[in-house]
């Protein structure tokens, strides 16, 4: 599973045009968001990170989001982290709002903050069911009920 663990030329260009997440893993590796990197599948770095963590029994210990020099600390030492991209538009307008929904899991309580991009402006905060979007959540093993997660994955695959 290919992950970007150092600031290479692709990350420099990508991060110059896009806000990125930066995570520290339980083995002290740092991983950078590199969505749509050429010749890398799947294109979502979060999906690749989730699989890497599952295959290597790792978890996230810290998450930050960055837009150029503006860095927001999401937090450290939670039971899991949530990430999802979003976009919305205003009716009868060409204006599109891009967002990141970023959350932290403590036990089975998932708290998600929506950030407007590219400025990294916090907009809304909500509690969510951690079983509703399992692909967006990377959690430590044993925190969530595996049977509930599997049932949700089975429903999503229908």
Describe this structure in words.
The protein is of the alpha+beta class and 158 residues long. 20% of the residues lie in helices and 41% in strands. The chain contains three helices and nine strands; from the N terminus they run H-E-E-H-E-E-E-E-E-E-E-H. It has helices at residues 9-17, 45-56, 146-156, and strands at residues 20-25, 30-32, 60-67, 70-76, 80-89, 96-106, 109-117, 121-128, 137-139. A five-stranded antiparallel beta sheet has the order 8-7-6-5-9, with helices on one face. A four-stranded antiparallel beta sheet has the order 2-1-3-4.
List the helices and strands and how they pair.
Elements: H1 9-17, E1 20-25, E2 30-32, H2 45-56, E3 60-67, E4 70-76, E5 80-89, E6 96-106, E7 109-117, E8 121-128, E9 137-139, H3 146-156
Antiparallel strand pairs: 1-2, 1-3, 3-4, 5-6, 5-9, 6-7, 7-8
